[in-house]
Amino acid sequence: MENYQLIDNAEESRYEFHIGKHMPLVEYLRTDNGEIYLTHTEVPVALEGQGIGSQLAEKVLADIESKGLSLVPLCPFIAGYIKKHPDWRRIVMKGINF
Q1: Is residue 97 part of a domain?
Q2: pLDDT tens digits for range 52-84
Q3: CA–CA separation, 70 and 1 (whole Å)
Q4: In this protein, which residues make up the domain named N-acetyltransferase (predicted)?
Q5: CA angle at residue 94 from 93 to 98, to 5 degrees?
Q6: How confident is the model over 11-52, as pLDDT tens digits?
Q7: Residue 54 falls within a domain, yes or no?
Q8: CATH code of 31's domain
Q9: Which residues are CB-neighbours of 81 under 8 A, at least 6 positions away?
Q10: Domains identified in the chain, total number
């Protein structure tokens, strides 16, 4: 699988991959006190089943960690990804259980 570049489109409050005419994305809300809420993940149907959503989740979580933010995973896809990769719980805001 190709290694896609993660774009943090802060103006639109979303992380993106640009893959041809398609744009997988993760929408977020970021607070001024160092919290980020991942609210929605979308992978175009044409790209499903290729591991692109997992690559997107991994890169988004790595970016959040590099920025020192506390994560609240409201999106079911991201929450499911963290359940499958529990080492990412290290960036989840204390007290958040899912």
Answers
A1: no
A2: 999 999 999 999 999 999 999 999 999 999 999
A3: 29
A4: 7-93
A5: 75
A6: 999 999 999 999 999 999 999 999 999 999 999 999 999 999
A7: yes
A8: 3.40.630.30
A9: 54, 57, 58, 61, 88
A10: 1
